[in-house]
Amino acid sequence: MAGALVALFFGTGSLTAATTGKVTARPAMLISTTMLLIGLALLVAAEPLRSIPMLIIATVTSGGATALGDRCNLQIVKEIAPPEQRAELVSSYLLVCYAVSSLPVIGVGLLTRGQPLVRAPGFCNPAGAAVPGRLRDRMEVFEHWAAAMKMQSRRRTFFPRRG
């Protein structure tokens, strides 16, 4: 069942990313944030209710929301990046995204080390609660990059490159 849910999450995300290419970034980010909060609420509610259908709906909602948000964030980064620095900025952005996504998983793995497998899922709830923090961290990184790009474009205006 767990493998099927992971496949459903990533399958929904892939389908969402492939079919929402014409959606502009700002409305899509608002929609993805709303969908993510709904998906997380459904996920939290599915556990005490022991509801597999609710878990499946939460998985689909969260997978689509995550893909839509990631696609739109990357779209904005590509739009604000100067053409000669676009590859550097996109690769840095993806590196930060993957690091932010993997650190909670590594932390949960370290926290559950030596715990019986039956008790280990109890450690996952704080990691799930940290998802809004993950969104906030991504927005702070994005705002920092946007400010750096504005500063870079101002420098080019006052101090053009030589050679």
In N-to-C order, the SSE pattern is HHHHHH
- What Rg is obtained from the alpha carbons, in whole angstroms? 19 Å
Low-confidence spans? 118-135
Morphology call: globular
Class derived from helix and strand content? mainly alpha
Q: What is the average of the pLDDT values?
A: 76
Overall domain count:
2
The helix fraction, in percent, is over 70%
Describe the structure using short key phrases:
163 residues; 2 domains; 0% strand; mainly alpha
Structural overview:
With 163 residues, the protein is mainly alpha-helical. It has two domains: 1-80; 83-163, no CATH class. It has six helices and no strands. Helix 4 (86-111) packs antiparallel against helix 6. It is globular, with a radius of gyration of 19 Å. The protein starts with a helix and ends in a 5-residue tail after the last helix. 16% of the residues are buried. The model is unreliable at 118-135 (pLDDT under 50).
Brief write-up:
The chain has helices at residues 2-19, 25-49, 52-80, 86-111, 124-129, 131-158.
Give the secondary structure arrangement, pairings included.
Blueprint: H1 2-19, H2 25-49, H3 52-80, H4 86-111, H5 124-129, H6 131-158
Helix pairs in contact: 1-3, 2-3, 4-6
